[in-house]
Amino acid sequence: IEVKLKVTGFHIMFGNQDVTQTPTSVRFVGEELKVSVEIEPEHAYSEDIILFSTNTEVAAFKGHTLHCLSPGKTEIYVESAFSEIRQNFTVIVIKYGE
């Protein structure tokens, strides 16, 4: 019998910023930052976790790396359908010098 524990929480890092504690990040066009997700409990089922941007013209994912493409604002979602959990943070992309 196989038992899969549900994820009860996410701890999300966007580059070196803890977006679980501070859920807004301002970045520059051209930046590429990895999003890392720690799950609670540690051994819960995490194979279905997805990351997505609500505005892919502003920022889009390639794997777990977010590419900042153009000025604007987007919401980044981390979710698991199996665990019925979703968490998000905001990314504001600006041009350098603005």
Blueprint (SSEs and pairs):
Blueprint lengths: L8 E6 L2 E2 L5 E5 L3 E9 L9 E4 L5 E4 L2 E4 L3 E9 L4 E10 L4
Parallel strand pairs: 3-9
Antiparallel strand pairs: 1-2, 1-4, 4-7, 5-8, 6-7, 8-9
Detailed description of the structure:
The chain contains no helices and nine strands. By secondary structure, it is mainly β. The protein has a five-stranded antiparallel sheet, with no helix packed on it. 18% of the residues are buried. The mean pLDDT is 96.
Tags for this model:
98 residues, mainly beta, five-stranded antiparallel sheet, four-stranded mixed sheet, 9 strands, 0% helix, 54% strand, elongated
Outline:
This protein is an all-beta fold and 98 residues long. It is 0% helix and 54% strand.
Over the alpha carbons, how many angstroms does the gyration radius reach? 14 Å
Mean pLDDT: 96
Largest beta-sheet characterization: 5 strands, antiparallel
Strand content: over 45%
Report the helical percentage: under 10%
